[in-house]
Amino acid sequence: MVEQHEDTTGSLEHEQSAPWGATRRKKRWWIWLLVVVVVIAGFFIYRWRDAGGEKVKAGPPVRGVPIVTATTYKGDIGVYITALGTVTPVYTVTVTSRVQGQIMQVYYQEGQLVHKGDALLDIDPRPYQAALTQVEGQLAHDQAVLTEARIDLDRYQQAYGRNAIAKQQLDDQQQVVLQDEGTVKNDEGMLANAQVNLDYCHITSPIDGRVGLRQVDPGNIVQANSATSLVVITQLQPITVIFSVAEDYLPQIQTQLRQGSRLGVDAFDRDQTQKLASGYLLTLDNVIDPTTGTLKLKAVFANTDSSLFPSQFVNARLLVETEKGVTLVPNTAIQRNAQGPFVYVINSDQTASMKPVTVGTTDGTMTAVEGVDPGVVVAVNGFDKLQDGAKVSIQNKPGGGGNGSSTTGAGGALSGSSASANPSSPSRGAAGQ
């Protein structure tokens, strides 16, 4: 009975423990699943945070250096000599009175442009008209005396032919006629003088030009041959500019003149920024100034717009030679370092490369260089941040930068240092600009 009881108890214990073990194993499976899910989630969270951190560390992409560019091109450039000059009229007339009298009328206005023969002033003509009348009367009297003497001479010649008078009487009458002829001739001279004095009472302009400020008024008494001028007239069209160049340039200028070349001359304002007029070299002086070693040159200008004014100081630029078919770049593109001049060439991948160049003829805006070919794109600003191999960002305006027009001014502008330091200095510029 006892054994049966124990077996029954053991059997019951086995039956009661079996469901509990299965439940325990089922709970462990869910725990392991939860752990795996947490690990996977943590892995993805870590990668997401790491990727986000890398984005923060990378920051925005590096932008290129902003620049403006120009394109080199093949063209002609002139060799110039620049010097300070003075505008000088071809003619300057100081009108004074040739007779004495009272000014009756003034016809011109101050600053008026007059032509040759235009009336300027009238001086009281009445005294000279009276003197002319007196001389005319004296001439008429003496002409009558001469006519009478000639009639007598004819009679004496006929009488002498009949041997009615002596030869001495005929000779005396011939001398009387000659004396009367001299008297008449003297009267004619006095008449011409009186007529000239009368004409001097009406003063006209001897040239085309511009009158200055009025210096006399109607009612003033003027003296004959006085040093006081009545009016000054200066010719403005054409007009000349006289300037001096160093004697070192004389052979170069003479070579061009011997070849029959007409050397062009441009006149610029005091700041050398605005071209006032264009003309050509007229002549050279015949002697070099030994005290300064310079030679005077005279250029003539049509001055149709009256942009040149007498005694005005201008900067004269003489073209002595033209270099053809050279590579031209804007002056602003040329930089210098210890190794010499260079330019930044912009490559197709938007990077800059330093390119050494040899600088030749230059003017205020363009320079002839060797070392780069025509059609190359170069930088013209942004040099404070630009380096060899640097990435660039081109900022050209639409339509600009093709030939440097967006960054340079009109050709022919001069550098201000050349003319201020020396009486004359070579300046070179793009021909035809």
Helix content: 25-40%
CATH top-level class of the largest domain: Mainly Beta
What composes the largest sheet? 6 strands, antiparallel, barrel
Total count of domains: 2
Fraction of residues in β-strands: 25-35%
Number of strands: 24
Question: How do the helices and strands follow one another from N- to C-terminus?
Answer: HEEEEEEEHHEEEEEHEEEEEEEEEEEHE
Count of helical regions:
5
Query: What would CATH call the architecture of the largest domain?
Result: Beta Barrel
Shape: elongated
* Average pLDDT score: 83
- The unreliable regions are 1-18, 53-58, 398-433
Indicate the structural class.
alpha+beta
- Radius of gyration using CA atoms only: 52 Å
- What name does CATH use for the topology of the largest domain? Elongation Factor Tu (Ef-tu), domain 3
CATH superfamily of the largest domain: Efflux pump adaptor protein, beta barrel domain
Span of the ends, CA to CA: 136 Å
How do the strands of the widest beta sheet line up side by side?
Answer: 3-12-15-14-13-16
In short:
By secondary structure, the chain is an alpha+beta fold.
Q: Can you give a write-up of this model?
A:
With 433 residues, this protein is an alpha+beta fold. It has 2 domains: 71-88 and 237-429, Efflux pump adaptor protein, beta barrel domain (Elongation Factor Tu (Ef-tu), domain 3, Beta Barrel), CATH 2.40.30; 99-231, OB fold (Dihydrolipoamide Acetyltransferase, E2P), CATH 2.40.50.100. It contains 5 helices and 24 strands. Strand 18 (340-346) and strand 19 form a beta hairpin. The N and C termini lie far apart (136 Å).
